[in-house]
Amino acid sequence: MKVLLTGATGFIGKALSAKLLTSGHSLIALVRHSTDDSFLIEHHIKVFVDNGTVDSLADLLQTEKVEGIIHLASLYLKDHSTGDIPALLESNIVFPARLLEAAKLSTTVKWSINTGTFFQHYQQANYSPVNLYAATKQAFEDLLIFYQETTPIKFVTLKINDTFGPNDTRVKILNLWKRYSENNEVLQMSAGEQLIDMIYIDDVVDGFELMINHLATKPISFLPERCYALSASERVSLRELAQIYEEVSGLPLNIEWGAMPYRPREVMVPWSGGVRPPQWTPKVTLREGIAKLIS
């Protein structure tokens, strides 16, 4: 199929792009002017730079005969300042809304996958945003309902909590531990009682690919939910995760537990109300994934 991706140069985007190319799909990456497109060029992915108009996006979808859209791009900010608000709204609401409108104008787009976050469900609520980032993700999900009800396009949202794996350049906990353990530094952390829902990148990619196949080959009645969750098969506390990391890596972690307070609206128990995509289950355990990451 001809598939358009946003966020193709991110951690999930790169892994998913590689898998979809291997499966024989043709990809177009929708990027900003400032995006480093070296990965895309290297993998022969067609690049289209967004110029801010719906018409240009609609022309792209129609001319390239795009059948499916995967929306991965977002601006994530754990905490925001007042000056961050315009960028959050533009990246997480306005930009993808233009893409939805363009898809509505096209005659070729048959399905679209949006990416959400467990942070939309603080303390297991149907909706309670952990931060403004999560609120913008919910706002866009609400916009999706209009297009679900006014177009024949099959829309679905996949919500993810945390991901890990090789080639991850983000400042994430496992990468942080690796750096501190190698340098024998002391790391101050919270008490570490919060549960972690973390999925290895290969399982995440499999979830997206399976959902693509469902959307492309099955009636929408096969997917009765508007939203699905890619959730881990095992949840451990942050302290338990550190112990697993030490055992698998053989590297001691010098952590001062309780030296830092919990953040405001700290997620102690990840959202558990999501439904997994039909026929999907994670295959890589935490221990296996950490071993792959270290090697």
List the helices and strands and how they pair.
Layout lengths: L1 E5 L4 H12 L3 E6 L6 H5 L3 E4 L4 H10 L4 E4 L13 H21 L5 E7 L14 H19 L3 E7 L1 E3 L8 H10 L3 E4 L5 E2 L1 E3 H17 L9 E4 L5 E2 H12 L4 E4 L28 H9 L1
Parallel strand pairs: 1-2, 1-4, 2-3, 4-5, 5-6, 6-11, 7-10, 8-13
Antiparallel strand pairs: 9-12
Helix pairs in contact: 1-7, 3-4, 4-5, 8-9
CATH architecture of the largest domain: 3-Layer(aba) Sandwich
Sum up the overall morphology in one term: globular
- CATH topology of the largest domain, by name, is Rossmann fold
Q: Oligomer, anyone?
A: single chain
- The rounded Rg comes to 20 Å
Descriptive overview:
This protein has 295 residues and is an alpha/beta fold. It folds into two domains: 2-164 and 197-230, NAD(P)-binding Rossmann-like Domain (Rossmann fold, 3-Layer(aba) Sandwich), CATH 3.40.50; 173-196 and 234-269 and 283-294, UDP-galactose 4-epimerase, domain 1. The protein has helices spanning 11-22, 38-42, 54-63, 85-105, 132-150, 173-182, 201-217, 238-249, 286-294; strands spanning 2-6, 26-31, 46-49, 68-71, 111-117, 154-160, 162-164, 186-189, 195-196, 198-200, 227-230, 236-237, 254-257. Strands 3-2-1-4-5-6-11 form a seven-stranded parallel β-sheet, with helices on both faces. The chain has a two-stranded parallel sheet with strand order 7-10. The two termini are 34 Å apart.
